[in-house]
Amino acid sequence: MENTNQPAAAKQHLTGRQWIERISFSFGNLGHSAFYGALSTYFIIYVTSGMFAGLPKAIASKLIGLITGLVVIIRLAEVVIDPILGNVVDNTNTRWGKFKPWQVIGGVTSSILLVILFTGIFGLAKVNWVLFAVVFVILFVALDIFYSLCDVSYWGMVPAISEDSKERGIFTALGSFTGSIGWNGLTMIVVPVTTFFTFIATGKHEQGPQGWLAFAIIIAIVAILSALAVAFGTTEKQNVIRDAAKEKTSIKDVFLGIIHNDQILWTSLAYLMYSIAYVSTNGVLYYLFKFVIGKPNEFWIAGLVATIIGFCTAPLYPIFNKFIPRKMLFTIGQVSMILSYILLITARTNLIMVVIGLILFNFTFAQLVTVLTLTDSIEYGQLKNGNRNEAVTLTIRPMIDKISGALSNGIVGSIALVAGMTGSATAKDMTSTNIHTFELFAFYAPLACAVLALLIFTFKVKITEKMHAEIVDELQAKLAKGDIAVAPEDATPVATDEATTILAPADGELEALTAIPDELNGFPGKGFAIKPSGNQLFAPFDGTVKFTFSTRHALGIISDSGVEMIIHVGIDTVNLRGEGFVTHYEDGQKIKANDLLMTFDPERIHQANLDDTVVVFFTQPARVQNMTAFTSGQIKHGQPVTDVTLTAKK
Predict the structure, then answer these.
(1) Number of neighbours of residue 507 by Cβ within 10 angstroms
(2) pLDDT tens figures, 124-161
(3) Among 409, 46, 38, which residue's Cα sits nearest to residue 211?
(4) What is the pTM of this model?
(5) How far apart are CA 355 and CA 430, in angstroms?
(6) Which residues are catalytic?
(7) Phi-psi category of 387—alpha, beta or left, where left has phi over 0 and alpha has psi -120 to 50?
(8) Using CA atoms, how far apart are residues 463 and 258, in angstroms rounded to an integer?
(9) Neighbours of 409 (CB within 10 A)
(10) pLDDT over 80 (residue 242)
(11) What is the pLDDT of residues 197-221, one digit of tens each?
């Protein structure tokens, strides 16, 4: 038997190569997120303030409106294009891997194009504004495509780097951590950088085109270095790469999945309202400091507040969630956001009150709660209509983020135009009408979205931790009775007369299902149980992993001969919410008998006063024509337990 302490030891003693890989991957998202921030927020600010400097105001306003509209259209089109680009990445096959080449190609190309856009396309608007618009569309579409290729390949690296779900979680957390620094760091440096380099070029203490170009060059250099770090500092493990279903999900699939699952629908709608409010307000904070408060040099405070609060809320979430249900955490976050808008509206010129408002604004758990609620809706959908919609569910949040980001671009550009916050205007040029217009779009409209998000999540989203546990129990009962299949009928191989040998998936004491007391949720149907003596779970036959419950305590597999099975680790372990379970496979991955599937923590299970019995049951008991008898007693993983013969499908 393998050393059961091996996973813990590996975690404590990282090799030099592992350190390099983690640092390289995390640095990758620092530049990647900084690039996205520059493109999605500060490019529009540059368009409204510096791109058309020197042109008559009437022409400049028309061009600002044109560019704003084009950016919104192009960014929304990106939602449709992303699945296609995902397929391009997935079908790449080079000696360097499938993801790393696109890090280099996408990162370098998009960075060069970003710099070109921040030159104002070399002043082409002053020569021919029609030609400028045509060239702008071509360059911006190309930039968006290459950025998306870089984005898809970056996050696609996670399953390619490691088979271990916990290790993947670490890489994801590191990427998110540095991504927050890259995003919020822009807020802290944008004014000093643009002002300094404008002063170097012109001797004027203002934010001119020269400063914006220098800002873009700095971001481009960081983005290129970050992409190269990922390409040369990480290693793709080709043996675990599979077709990523989420990269092949079409927009039609996404919307059909939402329509067919009311909990996905309401959760998505609540998150969309939150995201529009959050992203739009972030996009106009610069205008608040420059044109309303009249202190653009203090804008860095907004980035500092967001960074500090972000560092606090993410680590605190799992701690809070042990005592506070996530629905209440969502409510706390939305109430904080609503209070922040009230402060920003009533005390917009008081810097101290604005800072307090920004603290409340960023104190939100909405994104974390949404991700977990959408994940739990997978089992809800499987129980309700037999469709798990895993790929669809994983695609929804990024899609909503892209939609809200595109709308934010339009809102920022529109506010600048209608409130007169363009060109060389300053706070002294603002009238009461300008300020009121700014407030209407920057605060009142997002406030309405924040309130709607709270109402929708409170009254329409029903999935709580407790309800999800009940759903899983009911789903398992239906699976055990054969009411629901692991795989679609057309994907289940036709049975033959040949028996399939089922191997023990764990070491321990072999028992019949009837040995599990009813008070411990005795399992109906056909199968067996093992009281484990170790902490590892292995494949009982050659086949395919069809799905994993979102709480990682159970998985559905199907043999090459069509035997469908659920392996369930522990009794009522759904309540651990995935804590203590580490998977070593991808859903959809082909497996061989005795492949390591999972490691689990018996001590954590026992600490929660739960039973760690491994339960194995067939999800099509009516088709199990013959199941040979087995004798209770000690068994090792890989030893035969029983032979199963299936009847042909009707």
Answers:
(1) 23
(2) 988 888 899 899 999 999 998 999 899 888 887 887 78
(3) 46
(4) 0.84
(5) 22
(6) 568
(7) beta
(8) 15
(9) 27
(10) no
(11) 999 999 988 888 999 999 999 999 9
